[in-house]
Known about the structure:
The protein is mainly α. The protein folds into 2 domains: 1-91, Rna Polymerase Sigma Factor, Chain: A (Orthogonal Bundle); 104-185, Orthogonal Bundle (Arc Repressor Mutant, subunit A). 69% of the residues lie in helices and 4% in strands. It has 8 helices and 2 strands. The protein has a two-stranded antiparallel sheet with strand order 1-2. Helix 1 runs antiparallel to helix 2, helix 1 crosses helix 4 and helix 5 (108-116) crosses helix 8. The longest helix has 34 residues, at 146-179. It is globular and about 50 Å long.
Amino acid sequence: xxxxxxxxxxxxxxxxxxxxxxxxxxxxxxxxxxxxxxxxxxxxxxxxxxxxxxxxxxxxxxxxxxxxxxxxxxxxxxxxxxxxxxxxxxxxxxxxxxxxxxxxxxxxxxxxxxxxxxxxxxxxxxxxxxxxxxxxxxxxxxxxxxxxxxxxxxxxxxxxxxxxxxxxxxxxxxxxxxxxxxxxx
Length: 185
């Protein structure tokens, strides 16, 4: 089914299928960074695009359709986290493979720490540093105040610094103790 409406970003007529063809990759990349899990990101984008299709008249009426859909992705991510916390089994699932994401070995610690952040802090960091949005834009997207966004970013960065600095110190200590002769320790 093709739904044709005007896209105010381009000033031309665009249908839902064209939007999905041109923007699905960008939405997927955004969702991968947000969730740190390509499989979950694909599910998230699929669910959001399904809802967007059902509400295409409302979605396409927005001033910036892509920004509107990205907000839908963030909102769905935050609600999934809440829903998953209530309904997930107690067993710990295996870590998802990040083979499709271009990361090097040094960023594995960072990805693990990003996963441990609360959802709003992670969303604020992703929007600020991955998407390059201003605090004002993030506040509008998340529906919070600018000070709340600044606080979330600040707390997340502080938590990452403390955790990653601690793992670097442990790594350095183990390297020093294993490579330094006993007499020099």
